[in-house]
């Protein structure tokens, strides 16, 4: 565990004030969780109306945070959230800096350079980037060793998973600090061993999305039934276990080797990807029509509200199931309580 004297980083459970740069849906989501966990948030976002949109988002997110046990107060303590005029000011006033800028490498480079110049070297810089390699972002920094990716999943204030990804210059203790800080926030962090486009979980997610789009374009099934195949055929098991464990259990007493000996040739055919879909104007039109079908034509806001309310039940159920799962010595101490 990193201690206060190690490279002068604050202990993960001792952070009291965090800078949040970019207060769009991801930044506001992080800010809601930080406030729920008792941190002060120094925010910066130059977009017109950003502060009011962020406050509205946090207000709507708060009930779910209360139900999950992240927030102890019935309402946000708005005195702990304040906006400042520049990213540099936010970086100077906070102990840790958390960045949520758009996936625009040039924009990130400019702001990261500003922040890196303003913040003392002991202030860790966490990036929410969904796919830009941290080494590329470190090129903008005089202190690249303190930058590490802490990639959340939408909605960031609810979903437990975060990916920790270090770059070529990231100190090992900085990556470890990010893991411990995520656990302190009630997250379930995973650490990637190498940089990759889209990190890892997006790679898994979009392999399935790619196949869903291919099935739609090939006319295999309707958009509604393609989504139903995931919701009712795959998702219930995946709430309990990943793809590797699912395959292992499919082999019965023989486990992974049993299923591969029995059906390996067929599986080899099944996992061959379909035609690579290209996002042409016609494909985009078909996907927009598919979105109207699966959403029953209802506004996105209605579905977001339903999703977030339902996720509370799903996450609590997942946590109860995890507590009853078989655990060996390798798992001791790793289980995280999403309601802590």
UniProtKB/TrEMBL annotation:
A biological process term (GO) from this entry: fatty acid metabolic process
UniProt-recorded name of the protein: Carnitine 3-dehydrogenase
One protein family per Pfam: 3HCDH_N
Organism annotation: Pusillimonas noertemannii
Gene3D superfamilies to which the protein is assigned, alphabetical: N-(1-d-carboxylethyl)-l-norvaline Dehydrogenase, domain 2, NAD(P)-binding Rossmann-like Domain
Swiss-Prot/TrEMBL keywords: Oxidoreductase
Organism placement in taxonomy: Bacteria, Pseudomonadati, Pseudomonadota, Betaproteobacteria, Burkholderiales
Ranges where the 3-hydroxyacyl-CoA dehydrogenase C-terminal domain occurs: 198-266
3-hydroxyacyl-CoA dehydrogenase NAD binding domain: residues covered: 18-192
Highest taxon, organism lineage: Bacteria
